[in-house]
Amino acid sequence: MVSEKMLALGTTRSCIRELFEYGLRQAAVVGKENVYDFSIGNPSVPAPKEVNQALIDIVTQEDSVEIHGYTPAAGYMGVREAVADDLNQRYGTKIRPQNLFFTCGAAPALVSVVRALAVDGAEFVTVAPHFVEYRPFVECNGGKLVVVPADTEHFQIPFPQLEARLTSHTQAVIINSPNNPSGVIYTQETLRKLADLLEKKAGEYGHPIYIIADEPYRELVYDGNEVPFIPTLYRNTIVCYSYSKSLSLPGERIGYICVPDEAENSDQVFAAIAGAARAIGHVCPPSLLQRVVARCARLRPDIQAYDRNRTTLYEALTSYGYQCANANGAFYLFVKAPGGSSKAFSERAKAKNLLVVPGDDFGCPEFFRISTCVSHDMILRSLPVFQELAKEFADP
Length: 396
Ligand code: PLP
Fold this sequence. Notes:
This protein is α/β, with parallel strands linked by helices and 396 residues long.
């Protein structure tokens, strides 16, 4: 016998993976150059050369037993110090190395934080459009996911709808900015309003409501925009960070959780996170990668290629009549589906070998997602197909 819940999770694939795998099969039939695959968010920019150099230096210069050995569960002190220093320098905070718990990326970071806060009846609120995996992360780890419908005009937080969904069971609000799938950055004003609301509600309920800030795209921002560091606006913030996107290392699995001292019960929260990580089999983050991050903590990504892709697509698509969210970050465009149903649009596009992700699983069925971490050449080849589809939907 197996767990029905895990069986269901293991046998249903996300629509993103399904499209991606369809694309691979289709490429074998019609040729790779004739498939326009915008499905998956795999960085297309190589890891910075400093990362590769750090890897070489570490394996050739450092003690082999140590670099491949177990480390403390939260990471070795050198990497925690390097990252705390970098955060403090950038944001004027007073984060201590002891506030950082290194993980195998943002996914297990989120799961550990959710498990740590999942008291009986715990509710975790998130705002559509949201990362698809929040549902299994919350629902398989002792919580209930409550989704606030999207503000499809600006993709900020619709406050009346959020307020209506906060209850005495709300343990945390999970936010993701820059956002996957919309590419939108929450403004300082939005975050201040959120902080005020949660402070007020926490007072009413008599317990803190944490913000879980999911930030794998923190450094992927364009047009001189800035991403506010949420702990400076709201003390009860727990940050989940990843190097998957910023250093193009998604397969290497490295990231961290930050629980600043200012957060209520920070010591207990940190200890519960360590316990939750232990419960899901976390032993330590990859030792070699911790050493790379320690050397590269100040490195920022080169985002020119993503910016060029975003601009090319945005300009072309809007000129064909598509409406796109104003994406200033991450590497996605969120586009209103002509005809109103992103599923129907995605199916029609698929028939022309153009793969875009319907927004249903993101909680926003009228929009589809385009990943802009692809080759510029593929974007140029795909544009006539986007144009053709716009015409077909305008004139069915
Ligand atoms: N959160 C968001 C919003 C993401 O888009 C992703 C990955 O795409 C993750 C978390 C998980 O990232 P990681 O590779 O660090 O586990």
